[in-house]
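Sample A.
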Amino acid sequence: MANGILSGSGTQANPYIVEDGWDFDALRNLPATEWQWIELVDDINLAIFPNWIPIPSKRFNINGGGYTIKGLRIVGSAGSLGLFAQLETLETKDLRIEAEIIHTAAGTSDFVGILCGRLVGGSFGALSTDPPRTASILNIQCFGNITVTATASTQATGGCFGSTWGEANVTLQIVNCAYYGSISYHITSSSTTTPSAAQLRACGGIVGHAEARASIANYSITLANCISVTQFVMLGGTAHALVGGIMGATRTGAAPNITGCISKNRLLVTNILPWTQPIWFGGVLGAGMVSCTISMCAAHNEVIFNPSGSVAGMNIAGLHCMRSTGTNPVNASYAVINFTNPNNADLPVTRSMRGIGGQVVINNSFYDSQVLAEGWSEAVTNPEWGRTTAQLQSQTFLESQGWVFADV
């Protein structure tokens, strides 16, 4: 019907039909504790709302039909921001979103992502006696710019999803999702030098951080075949920043499997304000507070070190920057790191360059030692895994190292 009057009944067989921006806004009026099915039948322009108010927590299964939500603009100073503040879902698919988000995040649960601040597989607060379920997030494409000033002890920003939240007996699958845009990050709260689950500021191209209640059972999360083309702009801060091309950090209760993902990152350290704690950057994952597996991933990283202010520490890794616990294997993956210092700024006293990652188990994974040698002349962790550009471009060589190429 359009104009804010929803047709359909919200069931799987007869979903609510969304035809325009007024219809989409009307979704916020549906009950929060009942499962609803939603289907888009046209592109949606949200520019009719100069400052979109994120739809609060809902249990929606959304079929985007390949349509685009455009004109999404959000400026906020409290709460989680995105098209949805929190989305509980068993299936959301085939949706393209164009957005701009500016947020001063003051609370420890203030998460930012273009689709949603927090993504919940299944229903929030599920019981351990609930039957096993699979929650599928498929073909979500996000485009735009995000600027966050984080003032709380814990904050997560992702191009698509700020935080993923696991529930009992749920397998959360994020497949064929993508982000193309920039994330500018400024942290104003104090912290210890070493990241911890209690004080975690993370931003990632697809997901800011993954977490779940530590007491839940039978929960898993997989990110598969996702693409991130992201410019991370480090504006300055008084706390550590965890930055990952695909995911910023794993936090609690979740052991993500990241497979078949590609990231093309630019980390731009151009801060006028000082960074008084270290920056941790990984081409796929910034930091693992709990275990994570990276398999068959590729990260092309450009790091431009051009600060105007001081930088206390800089830790760079091709795929996985640091871990807190677990073995965190990296399997059959590769990284390219192009480091430039255009104005010959003094490097931080605390600094490290890891070709693959820190404190991880490396299995047949490599970094391009030729490219890294052009910009970084100091010691590199994982030197035994460095290979030439020609080797990394050779299917024959990679097959000799145990890689298996599938016909597509």
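Sample B.
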Amino acid sequence: MYVASPPTFNQATQSLDYKVTSPHFNDTGKANVGNYNLVIGSEAARCIYGFTKAPISATVSIISADGTAQVATTTVNEKNGWLYLSANGFTYSAPTVRVKLTQEAEKPVVTPTPTPSASKAPIAVPKLLTISCVKGKITKKVTAAKPVCPAGYKKK
């Protein structure tokens, strides 16, 4: 059995709650295992929760009549304007299927502002000196920061 109406919005838990019920055991004495599927328009879900167009995510939980959570396999999918939620493998008696939708806050678009780059300090160019070196009748000019005459040459 189920409540023949849409899920109710629970202000306290910010969730959609849906009541289902069944005898706890089936005719063979095993616990009844159930499933729950909800298809809701994405726009309707966003309206209920006050969400934007950004993607939403959901958690589906099964709460037993005594308030404890049950283990269930759940799936959530949004496709073509519809939000599909499913919970499977939970035991019946009088559980509440609780669907909580969440959405991350939209991150503001940050446009990077160019930062002034530090201008590179001019590289100090060492002052070049030129000397003349002599070896017999041959003269060579050597230019460098610290010029030195080649082997066998003498400074003129």
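B remarks: Residues 42-49 form the longest helix (8 residues). The chain has two domains: 8-102, 127-156.
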